[in-house]
Structure prediction request, 496 residues.
Amino acid sequence: MEAALQEKLKGLMASKLSREMRLYLDTCARCGICIEACHAYASMPETRYTAVARAETIRRLFRRYFKAEGRLLPGLGETIELDDAALEKVHETAYTCTGCRRCMTYCPFGIDTQMIQGIAKLLLIGADREPKLLTMLADMSIAKGETIRDTKGAFEQAVRNLEAEVIEKWRGEAGREAIPVGVKGADVLYVALAGKHSIIPAAAIMNAAGEKWSLSYFEAVNFGAFVGNPEKTREISRRIIDEATELGVREVAICECGTAYRVMKHQTGRHPFEVISFVDLMERYLRDGRIRVDRAKLDGSRVTYHDPCQMARNGGVIEEPRRVLRELAGDFVEMRPNRGENWCCGGGGGLVAMGEKDFRMKSARVKAEQVRATGATVLATACENCHTQLSDLNEHYGMGVRVAFLSQLVADALVQA
Amino acid sequence: MADHEAVKVLDLKGLPCPMPVVKMSQEIGSVKVGEVIEVHTTDPGSLSDFPAWAKSSGNQVLESQQDGGVIRIFVKRLK
Prediction:
């Protein structure tokens, strides 16, 4: 590795060494409690899939270049040089970790492995070795901030073409748009994904609740976060923040996408509006009696719920989906463990977008067993990434469930007044 | 609306996020510079995603057509 590149990477690493990060890098006592917390290790018991091993490459680089003993006597301590071999190791650790942070909940010091992997991902970006697919998707989102001026009309037409499917689920007031877009003064800006499955059920539910809402022109997902690029993450979020501010909405409701919710809710600072998940909104409508659902729709079905890591453990949306499901289903059972201790589905951290199907299936064997043990026939979740991964697991392991978004179950059970 | 002569048709209807753009980016290298791929999708977001992807990747969306719920996008490889 050229000296100039090594210096650049050391600079990038230094930019991540906050007080918390230094604490995480200094503190590990190698107690090993985190080892069995990782779904990948639980499914494939190899040392490289433990949280402590994943963090070790970064720890050794930290000791080598940012601790006095490593700088002065690098041969004596547990250090490694920042070279091509180290970057290969960094790549493996960063992209076999889904960033679910389950290990953190078991660590007696609360060491955040995902945060440590943030260094790994930044080093890969600096060395131009990050997964190009994720950068391409992030760049597309950023470019959309400019090209949207030219494509708004076509998007609006496409949305109008979906309105009949919304009305099939909920007949709204005559003359009222089933999918409003660009509504100044709306109370809620709903940020969906590109697909209609992310728009139609939510539209029906908000119309049933009599909500004054508007659909965002942008997609909720943030690939800047997946690839670990802080600048791109900010730029992608900025598009939605600007749109919400311009419309003057009170709330921004993020669709069923865990990373999108966590980034917008917890990592973009304060705004003149509240950020909520669409699960929060559905729960509120049910609690306030603004929508009603027909439990008979799920008669004969045993329903369980997969907590998306970025929604539950890392986002705090834990009891709301359960309250929604108890309204919907007579036979709702928890998978165990659940809530903040739930097993990751194995598809996070960009793995679903990147493909990686062989690793995703093998590393999530424990998830399939956990679902199967519930005896459920319907597996509900509230995250696009999880939905895709769980659908793949369903096929791969023959789980025999119907994987469904919460919004889809609610929309299908709406009771027309 | 003029149809464009596509050398390849990609049926991306109903794929989860972000697969339509992922598939497109994987397939663009399979055609020659100057050739056109026709994409079929049902995602409203594709109408803004594909032009944004084309801008950031140095390709060109020649035209988008909507026929009910099916969206046809013609993408020309430029480099």
